[in-house]
Amino acid sequence: LEIGKLIFEQITEGNLDALKAKIETDLATNFPDVRLANLEILGNEDLNAVQVNITYTVVLSGETDTVSLNF
Question: What is the per-residue pLDDT across 30-40, written as a single tens digit (0 to 9) for each?
Answer without folding.
Answer: 999 999 999 99
